[in-house]
Amino acid sequence: MRLTDTSRVIRESVPAEVVEIAALVTELGNPSLLMFVLAVVFWLRPSRRRETALVVSYAIAGLAVLLTLETLLSMPRPPEELFRIPQDPDDYGFPSGHAFAAAVVYGGLFSAFVVGRDRSLARNRGQTALAGIGASLLIALVSLSRVVLGVHYLGDVIVGAGLGIAFVLVMKYATAGDPRRGFAIGLVLAIPAVAVTGGTPNAVLALGGSIGGLFGSSRLSVLPDLRSRLEGALLVAIGGSVVGALTALEAVVAAFAPAVVVLYAVVVCWILFAPAIVGRLGSEVLEGATRLSP
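RESULT FIELD:
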């Protein structure tokens, strides 16, 4: 089922010189990077905030599902001697979290932006096909990189990517395009994930993120548009810095699970509310500059 022999052939056919490239490619499936990508898209594409928030809900709900599955199956990674990059040998290996996350986020963006109810981006068939090829290529490259790096078997990534795509299809139907439903589903899924995993940091993240998203997504319609590219750059700089600072606090409060839940609820709320907060700050700066000018 895990295709260990085929995995060995793939791993051994890739020269050591390519491993560094594979290590870079695999970061495209890193959940932290994917969440930052979604945050930037949310901040810089005001007309598509509802769709982006929807994909954020997919990612958080999907994390809860993945953690539950990995824990229940308890199938280990390949032996540590096969690793070509540093990796925690105690992490579960089936299904692949990177492949699943890549499928949920890149597949979710394709589903929400290109083939969703709003077909403004899907009128050109060539554009739609190109977007689909791009999303598929990203998912395939991330999945293959995990095998090349020796941290997963081929079967792990095939199942992970397949489950991710299936999860997007289920969530698309279940949410009917409403991110509040997505975060509500994430909250329901996060509760058993916390129970099954014993309250691991990622499970608590899913719980807190769902709560924050459920609260924050109720105010999407009142968020301001971007007034300039400069404001967009300011939003990414300030928004990203705050997310980084808040995330770093996890090490301080990690021993107290309720505090971690609150922390990640605040992180997701910040991502969703940052356009309003930074937009107001930008207005005050511009008004102050105007008053000071002769």
